[in-house]
Amino acid sequence: MQFHDSMISLVGNTPLVRLHSVTEGIQATVLAKVEYFNPGGSVKDRIALRMIEAAERSGELKPGGTIVEPTSGNTGVGLAMVAQTKGYHCIFVCPDKVSMDKINVLRAYGAEVVVCPTAVDPEHPDSYYNVSDRLVRETPNAWKPDQYSNPNNPLSHYHSTGPELWEQTDGRITHFVAGVGTGGTISGTGRYLKEASGGRVQVVGADPEGSVYSGGSGRPYLVEGVGEDFWPTAYDRDVADEIVAVSDKDSFQMTRRLAREEGLLVGGSCGMAVVAALKVAERLGPDDVVVVLLPDSGRGYLSKIFSDEWMSSHGFLDEGEGEARVADVL
Ligand code: PMP
Nearest C-alpha to atom 8 of ligand 1 is from which residue? Predict the structure, then answer.
């Protein structure tokens, strides 16, 4: 019989897929690491598994305990999925810009979700960081993984994403591009690839305009899961060779093109990372291999990025773009 003992053993080993249409005119090979093939639907399954198993070993997470974490959704799904199989309860704290679709997914996995305002300082008592700290203090047997400072976040990528990419490209990868949120993906994967290649692989971070990584002050932007208004310790400042800032509009327009032209229904931070990857790839030659990591699926953003009404209400559709499609249907 061929079966997996649980969903946990399906985490990682995601495929690399070549981009064709959006790379027109580019000589380098551009490959996407499609993380929605993880069982919880995002790259965050990797960190959830490693953080939980490390906390079990250290005794921080006790049998029947409660996992409390501020998360924009994907880390929550990963934690909830692993927690289900191991008998833990979950409470997640989300900022209010996170789509209702994502919050409902967390609740479907049996987690409790507390929603907090986005437009307050991290120091404010209602900020999602502070609310989660309060819940940890007040909940018996609680453990906060804290993906922003947990070394097992970047380590999960050092031990899985990095080696997978090195093997999948037969050591031919020349550039790695990823969006930066907690910084775990770029720091862990980037460090592994730098070591494996003797420093040859160039590591490029993609960041929403306004976020601290690309020199901003934390000004609000709409791409979910990336950018910060503070510097998390999960982010290793020595790894990225370059940070490319991308606007919300460019991120979302590319996200829609990936679905229509490449058959890749992915999230907004994926469009953002691809815009950055293409900017890098434009200046490269035919021997270069650029890998861009796509963190999650587009299913969680149908009422936002993939809605013409939502896109045009934010000024993200170019003149006549939405109308042309209505005319096509008529
Ligand atoms: N995209 C999405 C949709 C995410 O949820 C995250 C995680 N916050 C990222 C990108 C960034 O990954 P990391 O936290 O590893 O920097």
Answer: 225
